[in-house]
Amino acid sequence: MLPNGMYNLVNLRHLDIRGTRLKEMPKGMGKLKQLHTLSYYIVGKSEDNGMEELGGLLNLHGILGIQKLENVVDGNEARSARIIDKKHIDELLLEWSAGDDMVSDAQNQRDILQNLQPHTDLKVLRIKGYKVKTFPDWIGHSSYNNITSVSLESCKNCCVLPSLGQLPSLKSLSIKRFGELKSIGKEFYKNEGHQHSLPITPFPSLEHLEFRNMPCWEEWHLPESKAFPWFKSLRINGCAMLQGDMVNPVLMRIVFSSSNVSKVRKLEIEDLETSDKEMRLDGDRLSISGFECLVECASVVSLGSNCLPKSLQMLKIDRCRQIELLQQQQKYDLVDLQIEYSCDSLTSLSLDAFPNLENLRIIGCSNLESVSMSEPPHAALQHLSIDRCDKFMSFPQEGLATPNLTYLSVSWCSKLEALPRDMNTLLPNLESLDIRGSPNICRSPEADLPPNLKHLGVGNCEEQVRGLSWMGNLDNLTYLMIVGDGRESRIKSYPEVGSLPHLPSLITLELWFFNNLETLECNELLRLTSLQHLHIVRCDKLKNMEGEKLPPSLLLLQLDDCHSLGEDCKSKHQQIWSKISHIPTIKVDDRQIY
């Protein structure tokens, strides 16, 4: 608590109590008339630390939060705080504490909020914990032409939103935890009771709109006139009763009414039980440069030539199993396409529809079998990831003609038989390749990897790990990650004699998850004449080093979660230390021991 004699600091100008657990203000705060900054005022239950003490603090600037408004007796006490006379307050928070959702006198609490009306120069308004069904008329009145942000939270009994649509400068609006609200209608856009205010386009400056945790919300109606001309982002989360056949027309009317639709960046729908069959964004009428994601839509949504704008740059579909990505003759300007655990109906993806695609990322697409192209080459593609697609089997029959591809990942694709054909000629710029968990690749007679590779990840299956001669000689490889098979690994000594290919440029070698590995073969590692960094992770049983010593070129040995070997290194065990003492830096569990 603050000192009882705070009122004696009559020249105090700044008091910031953010982050404290103060339960009420000390008595006599009204005497601090020179205060310019007061982050929070916590209303007490006595007259000496009630709302009237705020009345004389007319020099307050910036942000003011008033908490525990449940301690205010009535509207007259609220008026005594003279909030409307505090012309220099930019941001105002009005907060009732969490607790009983019901109020014994709803009209009294409404009167309290009515008499906490701020000056019209206010820029940010936040109201939290208000427990009455309706709001006073001043909230949303067009005379507040400087307000740019409004947040209404935990107004659990509210069933009618205030008329915020006439705030001319409002850019950001957040509405959260309205437990009783069922419908948003015309009252949201214009207060019919404002007889002396001229009607304006609803939400003329709004850019960001958010609804969260509104379990009873079922209907959303737009006004007849155009609204949201500068709209950029919409977020809906935790609104289980709001149906897709209501949301989609609203989205379309919001977007189509925008005078500058190129500003639209994001439409994000989460946890929405939608019964709708199509979400349409008409490319002939709309240009969106960054439509980012559709998240957790449980029912069927079709995305086809009439749904996606032709000028779309980036599309991410995440955890939407029922979305249908329809591939037709139309070509798109997509630069980035990401499909993650979605589109169960997708069995083949044609690259021909996306001639400008630079990044294609597909993860967990359970029925994808192939990627095709009939119009090679695809010169724009630089990054291609197809991971955890259990049924993926093949690339284009004539090879993957993507001459500027620098990164390719086909990890955990258990049915993939081979890498793309003619990689040496068709993928001249490929530098990074990840094939972990795709065991059939190393069995293929065409398994030779392009010699220009610089980074390679293999493993998660014993076929890839035990003998690496299938890789061929990779003269330019500088980084190699080899991942064991975890608890299933039967490898006890590694790398086996003669198992490493010729890797004259290898600088970094990482060994991960060899759970049953007991012995590290130093002599085989001596063949890596350029090796500088050896990183061994999660090899719990590793305790021995056989052979002469680790490569003399090593500058760093790093052990993480290798308990036995790590302890021997820290204690400079004779049998281990003689093989590693020449290494300038040794780290165990991220701590340097040498």
Describe it.
InterPro entries: LRR_dom_sf, LRR_R13L1-DRL21. The protein has eight helices and 34 strands. The protein has a domain at 458-594. By secondary structure, it is mainly β. The longest helix has 14 residues, at 244-257. The radius of gyration is 33 Å and the shape is elongated. The strands form seven sheets. The chain has a 14-stranded mixed β-sheet with strand order 14-16-18-20-22-23-24-25-26-28-30-32-33-34. The relative contact order is 0.04.
Secondary structure: elements and pairs:
Blueprint: E1 14-15, E2 37-38, E3 40-42, E4 62-67, H1 75-79, E5 89-95, H2 106-114, E6 124-128, E7 149-153, E8 172-176, E9 183-184, E10 208-212, E11 219-220, E12 233-237, H3 244-257, E13 266-269, E14 293-295, E15 301-303, E16 314-318, E17 323-325, E18 336-340, E19 348-350, E20 359-363, E21 370-372, E22 383-387, E23 407-409, H4 423-426, E24 432-434, E25 455-459, H5 462-465, E26 479-486, E27 493-494, E28 508-514, E29 519-521, H6 522-525, E30 533-537, E31 544-546, E32 556-560, H7 563-570, H8 574-580, E33 585-588, E34 591-592
Parallel strand pairs: 1-2, 3-4, 4-5, 5-6, 6-7, 7-8, 8-10, 9-11, 10-12, 12-13, 14-16, 15-17, 16-18, 18-20, 19-21, 20-22, 22-23, 23-24, 24-25, 25-26, 26-28, 27-29, 28-30, 29-31, 30-32, 32-33
Antiparallel strand pairs: 33-34
**What proportion of the residues is helical, as a percent range?**
under 10%
Main sheet characteristics = 14 strands, mixed
Q: What is the first-to-last residue Cα distance?
A: 50 Å
Q: Beta-strand percentage?
A: 15-25%
Overall structural class, as computed from helix and strand content, comes to: mainly beta
Major β-sheet strand ordering: 14-16-18-20-22-23-24-25-26-28-30-32-33-34
Mean pLDDT: 84
Round the Cα radius of gyration to an integer and report it: 33 Å
Low-confidence stretches: 255-300
> What is the tally of helical segments?
8
What is the total tally of β strands? 34
Q: What is the overall shape? A: elongated
InterPro entries: LRR_dom_sf, LRR_R13L1-DRL21
Protein name: R13L1/DRL21-like LRR repeat region domain-containing protein
Organism: Arachis hypogaea (Peanut)
